[in-house]
Design brief:
With 338 residues, the chain is α+β, with helices and mostly antiparallel strands. Helices cover 54% and strands 17% of the residues. It is built from nine helices and ten strands. The strands form two sheets. Strands 1, 3, 5, 7, 9 and 10 form a six-stranded mixed beta sheet that branches. It has a four-stranded antiparallel beta sheet with strand order 2-4-8-6. Helix 6 packs across helix 8. The longest helix has 104 residues, at 214-317. It is elongated and about 145 Å long.
Amino acid sequence: MSTDPSVPPAISPAAAAAAGAVAPSGGAAASLEITPDDALTFSVRGTGSKCVMTLRNPDEEGHVAFKVKTTQPRRYLVRPNQGLIPPRKSEEVTILLVDKDRAALLRDFDQIGPPALEGCKDKFLVQCCHAPLKFVSDHASKSGREAGEALTAMWGASGAGGRTVSNKKLQVRHVAGEGGTSATPSVGVAADRVKVEIGSAPVASPENISAMSSDQMLTEVTQLRKKYDELVAFSVNLTAERDILNNTLEQTKRDLNREQAARMSDERSGDSSARRYISKGAKSGSNTSKKFGMLHLGIAAVLFFFVGRMMGPRSQECVLPPVQTNTVETVETVTEEL
C-alpha cells in the first residue's frame, strides 16, 4: 500500500461525494475517495491497455476493507481486487484489459470505425465497509494468501458480517487514441520492448553508480521502475491468457466426457435392442418351424391313407387263383367216355 504524500483535513460528506467517494447504502458506512470517479478509460491502440484506480480512505481512525468487481471478469484483470486501507492512506488498483480482447476491439475499430467502441456496457463496482479492530490485527499477522482468504470469507458473509456496505459504480470507456488513464504495452509489444531495452541497456557497475549525480541516479531508478512495470504487465497478461486457456480446456474436457457418455449409452441401448430383436426372431422362427412340421406330417399321413385305399382293389384283381390240373384231366376223361 502506498501512503498519501499529503494529509488533507477532514472532508464533509458532500465534499467526499464531489470527490468521487463511495456512496453509503444506508446507516453509518465507510467511504472511499475514488480517482477517477466516473469512468475508467482503456485505449485499444498502442500502449493503452492499463488503468490505475486510486482508492483513498479519508477516515482518521478506522481501517476500510474494499472489494472491486466487474461485469466482465475474463476481460479485465484487477490487482489487487480486495484489501484493507489504513486511515488517511491510499491504495492503487491496477486494472488490465486482456490483450486478446484489446486486439479484438482494435480490429472492430479498424473495420467499422468509432461506432465499434461506443456503447460499452462493461461496469465496475467498488464496495467498502469498516473493518473491525480484531480482524485488522489478525489480518496483519497473516501471510498474503491467508490474508486474502480471510478477506474473501469476510465478504462472503451476509452483508459483510452485518456491517453496512457502500457501493460505487464506474462505467468503462474504450478509446482508440492514447487516452487511457494509464498506459501499458500489449503482451507482444511489451515482450519486444523488454528484450530490446534489457539487451541494449548498459549494466550499471559500482564505479558508474558512484560517479553518477543525483539526477542521473533518479533517471536510472525511473528507467528500472518502468522496466519492472512492463515486466509485471507482461506476466499478468500471460497469467490471464493461461487462465483463459485452462478454462477453455476444462470446458472442452467436460463436453468430450458428456459426448462419450452419450455415445456409450446409445451403443448399450442399441446392443440390447438388437439382442431383444434376435431373441424374438429366434423364438418366432422356432414356433413357425414347429407349426409347419406338424402340418406337413398331417398332410403326409392323409396322402398315404388315400394312396393305400386306391392301391388296395387293384392288387386284388391282379392275384389269380391256383390251377388244379388233376380236376381238368378227370373232366376230359369223363367227356370222352360219353
